[in-house]
Amino acid sequence: MSERKVPGVDDYQGPAGGWGSLAAVARVLKGQMAVGRETAALRRVNQPAGFDCPGCAWPDPRHTSSFEFCENGAKAVSWEATGKRATPGFFAAHTLSELWEWSDHALEGEGRLTHPMAYDPASDRYLPTSWEDAFQAIGAGLRALPHPDMAEFYTSGRTSNEAAFLYQLMVREYGTNNFPDCSNMCHEATSVGLPDSIGVGKGTVTLEDFEHCDALFSFGHNPGTNHPRMLGTLREISKRGVPIIAVNPLRERGLERFTSPQDPGEMLTNRSTPIAQTYYQVKIGGDVALLKGMMKWLLEADAVDLAAGGKGVLDHDFIAGHTTGIEGLRADLAATRWDDIIEVSGLARSDIEAAAQVYAQAESVILCYGMGMTQHRFGTRNVQQMANLMLLRGNIGRPGAGIAPIRGHSNVQGDRTVGITEKPTQALVDAIQRTYGFEFPLTHGHDAVEAVRAIRDGRSKALVCLGGNLAVAISDPETTFPAMRKLDLVVHIATKLNRSHLIPAKQAFLLPCLGRTELDLQNGVVQSVTVEDSMSMVHASQGGLKPASEHLLSEPAIVAGIARATLPRTKVDWQGLVADYGRIRDDIESVFPIFQDYNRRVREPGGFRLPVGASVRDWGGPDKKAKFLVSPGLNEDLRNNDAGVLTMTTIRSHDQYNTTIYGFSDRYRGINGRRDVVFMNAVDMEERKLVHGDRIDVEACGSASATRSVSRSVRGFIAVRYDIPRGSTAMYYPEGNCLVALDSHDPQSGTPAYKSIPVRIVAARDPEADGGG
Ligand SMILES: Nc1nc2c(c(=O)[nH]1)N[C@H]1C(S)=C(S)[C@@H](COP(=O)(O)OP(=O)(O)OC[C@H]3O[C@@H](n4cnc5c(=O)[nH]c(N)nc54)[C@H](O)[C@@H]3O)O[C@H]1N2
Ligand SMILES: Nc1nc2c(c(=O)[nH]1)N[C@H]1C(S)=C(S)[C@@H](COP(=O)(O)OP(=O)(O)OC[C@H]3O[C@@H](n4cnc5c(=O)[nH]c(N)nc54)[C@H](O)[C@@H]3O)O[C@H]1N2
Ligand SMILES: [Mo]
Could you tell me which residue ranges the Molybdopterin oxidoreductase domain spans (predicted)? Predict the structure, then answer.
């Protein structure tokens, strides 16, 4: 095939990290008009007395190391600490309809919000208002609803434990459990899948375990972009000679080789450290087939070894003493045919067996995974089969071994721990009753998809968002955007302007809050908040910068303001709690006893670890056993019998943080200055008579397009020939969200199937049409 030069598409040959990382940070800082604020901020990231990096939830080496350089963190911090401001003057100059035409990048690029604003339908603009007027109007709006279940309370995962706790308290006293949450779109398959199998919906490892593992499996996550500090850990593991096995349809550079900006030797000589020893380019959605293939081999090898008088390949003592359900798993694996495993995974039998061998030979294995496993219609089943694999050799609950879901937002795990859940337990009802003297219903509320459905159907009339960009993050904008316009009341608590804020209801409020980097003073006393990372470590975070505007309030103060105005007969001393966050922590401790001695322990360097039963082989439940869980089949719904159908996954570029688009490059994938790309396999392109750089249309089909008569398509993007398995294709999130029907989600966890969308790709009907960008 003659290779055409496509503007902005190159073959990136370098490692992850290295000088490119430093250059990229310099660019972002420049773009954000550095005024010294960012650099001051960067020195305080993840220091014992600094703030928690808002970039990701990867833990810090005891939170005491000197500043660990991370491109992702540097971007997140400078994006928040920017010198730019979206002032009332800015809002006076632009109607919302006008702003709607702006790109997501341009909207957030206006900088930090400075004043509480209220929507004025007559002029289609946000106008400044006072905090007290805003609170009163919001309170009146919420009280006017016929039933509390007609309001939705969304949380995004940057919210601190203190703010999240107050928020769930307010919502429960108000009377609903409608807690749509960003984790419903993220690791919900973990929160739902793992408790049934190991008794807890969290990871079981600590950072120390990575120093002792003998093999590491990485399924469906991209640390080079999304958790760059993890590359340091992977690099140490690789240097110890420990095999790292990557399972990912795309060859992600961060999983291949890394030059540590921390290592002057590597930086000066341009050397890099190889990461993955073996890279399995599984087909999208083929992971369960691979996992079942590995387990099938392990059972067979075990039988052979036992017959020869050996002690077997499985950990029989562990299985007998700690688990139930192995017989069901055996039967399921016996019924699973190699031919199907090979077809669905797209991998050779010898490769699958080799992976199983590495697993079997390692004394202690850690398995990490991310969105490539959870965001499928079978996300929960994926999670449970990974747990099965780990249980077969007792790889959970001992040093150097365990399962490690890699969380996204820096406090998404903590928010759940302190009560942001649509499925409250009787224990929570009792604890709140005991602490505050009010009761709330046990009935389940709405998760993210259910909340949008309720809004679509007119069952919910108000939406309050503590951060995030729900309308853009969730699937199906064609349903979501118009539905949200029909609301009576919308409240956004945010740092920067985004598209969700441009969908006004009858009444809409945009309330600007302090960010992590900023000094939070209450009654003249500096406050700190706390967060929980991916490994259940809780630690304090204290911002030091002068707030972006004198009109900002902290998230806890805003929540308390809304609560006071909404709940005239409240049982909670909102003002007292906000005056001293230590008191909020005392209350968290009284509602959640696992936070025992919270205020003292969080002051210790590095904070403390919350108990995780499975880490010490306490599996909970009446029988105190971990469970092998069977899910028959290999997710055949992904075997596109219909000729011509490809499976699309949606991924993050290197220059974005979820819906925040920092820039238009995706350095490690060779993309520069554009986002209108679809990564395709060369044979799939040939079959469609496409060449590299051709304009294409992508149309969702089958279950993704679901029943509604909406055509789900993306037009005029370009086809990029890429190293990805046949039948699999990828594009960026959120550009791809319009391809996912709201009803296309994992039935167990509700997680939208963002990563397995059946699509057809054809040459663009209008080849001159410009793709989005
Ligand atoms: N810089 C930056 N950092 C971030 C974020 C960000 O947007 N930008 N987001 C934060 C958040 S909220 C989250 S949840 C995390 C997300 O971090 P990741 O979990 O790394 O998220 P994704 O970019 O969605 O990438 C998922 C990976 O899964 C692979 N994949 C796709 N489909 C499949 C599949 O079927 N099987 C397998 N095995 N792999 C598959 C993709 O190729 C990709 O490498 O990162 C957090 N950190
Ligand atoms: N197709 C597709 N869709 C996806 C995904 C995917 O992989 N593919 N991933 C999903 C995942 S994993 C997630 S987590 C969701 C993310 O969904 P969200 O969490 O809703 O989205 P974010 O883009 O992280 O939110 C960004 C906004 O948060 C606000 N913000 C930033 N910092 C703060 C703060 O400190 N306080 C407050 N109050 N506001 C703040 C800013 O206004 C910013 O515009 O998207 C999901 N959607
Ligand atoms: Mo996430």
Answer: 112-494
